[in-house]
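Appendix B, example 12.
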Amino acid sequence: MTDVEESVEERMLSAADKSIRLVKEYSHQEKNRKESLRDFLSALGSMSSLPPQTGNFQSSSTGIVHQCVAAFAVLILSAAAGQPIGFSAVLLPQLYAENSTMNVDIELGSWIASVHSAASPVGSLVAGPLMECWGRKRTLQTCLPFLLLGWIMLASAPHLALVLIGRIVCGFGVGILAATSQVYLGEISDPKLRGMLIGAPFISYSIGILIVYLLGNIQWRWVAASGVILPLISMILFLRTPESPDWLVRHSKLSQADTAVKWLRGDDTYAKKEFHHILMANNIERNSDSSKDSFFTTIKQKHNLKPIIIINIFNLCQILSGTYFVIFYAVDIIKEVIGQSLDSLLAAIYTAVIRLVFTIVGCFLLFYMNRRSLCILSGIGSTAAAITLSIYLYVKMGTETSTFDFWIKGVCLLVYIAFNTLGFLMLPSLMVGELLPAKVRGMCGGYIFMIFNILLFAFTKAYPVMRKYAQIHGIFFIFGISSFLGTVFVYLFLPETRNKSLRQIERYFLNKNILWITRKKYEVNLTNL
């Protein structure tokens, strides 16, 4: 055994001994449990005893099934969160109708559509501290009563004030979910599965939106009443899922963390290695000079600030690329682009189906394809489709829509939605789950989604003004240029994270390079972990 190996072994044994002492102090009522934990921690003295991994997975087949079960509870909740996102596209046309019992104009309609996004930042702001204090799982459960209450208020609203309040309450619940789901899935997932599992909530969002669109011909109160079903199902499923092992270790709940890791990895050998890595990272963090720094001092450190800046800039590009405009104003946009010859609600359903299909495709591509490549492909396709549609709408402005025009505009719109969904829709949340360091992941995840939702509210509220002055061809030109800028940004700055552990990704940001394309020692650092 070399001196380096002996040094590593001594450090590992020291960390294990320290963990054992923490377990002893934690509770006298779990003596037998702690003794078994002590035995396997001692066995971690030599990592050479671990068998080689097969297929790059760090979990057994049982563990993979367990991770999918835990993810399924989050997916049902995400589908529940997708329903209020798409609800305005069904609600507004019915409120604008002449026989509506509530008088709504375009200005008030924009408030109904956007107020959901105004409330989401508050939920995201609260989610950060909740994740750190209560844990990831409990924070996810916290959003359930808000979704239930919001839908009940909408279904029973006698006047517009309660409609707005119901939208606000639902938006607050969705804000809590947004960052928490990505952080939770990122921390429980096998590195090989992480991209697919973190991307999977967007399948659920798309399903939730599609469900609402499919119910669009039903009176909007009944659509709102149906919104309570998925939160109730999710509430039951969460009774069987574990808390994040990373959070449990950071809060010295080592016995519970041991149980959670074993359940999620499905095999003692894999669990030992994973638990050891979590313990080592936590001990290094606690023993560092910055361990007692305040939160704001911590995020100002370069290795923490770099991923935060990357995520926020790309979030802005994603919003301006039109991802959520087409969701919130689906019916109105389709009417302007295609014309009155097509049932707008039916067309909105088609766009939701396209979004769902390509979200599923994107999740599977995340399993086989690099993050950067997928996002660049998404950006190039979105740019080409949006610019082409913009030019065609400008050239044909003021003329009658022929059958040929109908198909050209329809295909361009669907291609734009497909490519935009493929990478741009999923990547920002994937970044939150993968790029943020463990020490600030919970708090920063909430703050990042808060900033995102503030920007989303502002631009969603401004959409009627943009439509009036830029017109529909100008709006799609903005979508195209923003997609292009987002693609360039990803090429220059976004690191590749596929099949890398969260600890390896953290290590990358310790390097001095800012641009991904200028990295030189990145691969060396990863392989040394």
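The radius of gyration is 24 Å. The chain has one domain: 61-241+295-527.
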